[in-house]
Amino acid sequence: MADDDWFERALRELDGEERETADEDAGNESDDGEDRPTTDEPDGFDDAGEEFGDLDRDDEESGGPDVDGDSDDESSRRDDTGADDPFVEDFATAFENAPRPSGAESDDELGFGAFGEAGDDGFEFGAFGDDEFGFGGPGDSAFDEEAFESEIERIEIGINGLDEMVLGGVPERSLMTVIGSAGTGKTTFGLQFLEEALANGENAVYITLEESEEAILSTAEEKGWPFRRYAEADRLAVVALDPIEMANSLASIRSDLPRLVEEFGASRLVLDSVSLLEMMYDAPSKRRNEVFDFTRSLKEVGVTTMLTSEASEDSPYASRYGIVEYLTDAVFVLQYVRPSDFRETRLEVEIQKIRDANHSRETKPYEITDEGISVYRQANIF
Asked: Quick check: pTM over 0.85?
């Protein structure tokens, strides 16, 4: 055809320098010397008409053979000035050649080093484990849990098994409550809590709204705890108050508590029971305000305090009026468990909360013996 003859004639006329110049301008000379058709695009444009200068593209980018004679293993291509073109480098080469922060002599100091060479990088991300930011393995975390917990003084409650459920001990000066129905051992719990301090040479205060001073001292002696001797040595103050009298003079009692604690140098205080105090107020708003003010005054005294509270009739996990568990730092729940076969009624204890302390979420059986309360930490209820 006429067009084909014209095209062939045009190709034959291109020889010597004219053909070489045309090939370079069009970027069409292949490695094997075969010619490819030229285009009418002006110099400085590629086949798509986009301006790239005389930038060559290798066979992976253009789909054809290497057009500039460079080997495939070269990591960079050059533009018309001969400079390396960073846009055609592979990622690994570009990262290798990237500028580093001043003072950094290796990739490890950038924090993206050997992906496994522990501790060699400045930002400690390298080993997938041993890093200062705590993202790593269990061995080397920057967050020192022991150091953190040591900042808060901890104390033991004094009940075998239960102390193991409180991991590390109860924070000192906490305000705690023990919730339970009648017969679950709330009073024994409070007495045993004070015995732990008294046996270690500390002083304590016991405020009772239910029993007389003599009854409290006798109950403690039945468990083998020499409360009478502590009281005679002025290391223990047992204060028996009538609930009505206390409700009527609560303001003066709140002001007298700091003086009482200071006189005895007490480190622990027990109030048995706060439910009787709550019962003295008919209006819920008045009850909440008075209990709130009283618990706040106990915290201001600066001793570790234990309140006992009757459980709600609707739930063993709530106090009678549902107030004290929200105002205290720790809540222990004592309750009966009756199995379906009705063969034996058991007692169980649960730690509902402890602020600023780890604790077990398990429910464990316990017994009230002639030596006090003992929790079976390794046993289950059923």
From this structure: no
**Residue 124 belongs to what domain range?**
104-143
Task: Confirm whether 305 is domain-assigned.
Answer: yes
What local confidence, expressed as pLDDT, does residue 10 receive?
59
Q: Residue 292 has what DSSP assignment?
A: H
The token pair at 156 is 């033991």
Residue 230 covered by a domain: yes
- Please state the domain count of the chain: 2
Whether 180 and 137 share a structural domain = no
Residue type, 97: N
372-375 and 363-369 strand pairing: antiparallel
Contacts of 367 (CB under 8 A, 6+ apart): 347, 373, 374, 376
Rg (CA), the chain: 42
CA pseudo-torsion sign 15, 16, 22, 28: positive
**Separation between Cα atoms, residue 21 and residue 17, nearest integer Å:** 6
Element (H, E) at 267: strand 266-272
- Counted residue by residue, the chain has a size of 382
In a domain, 54, yes or no: no
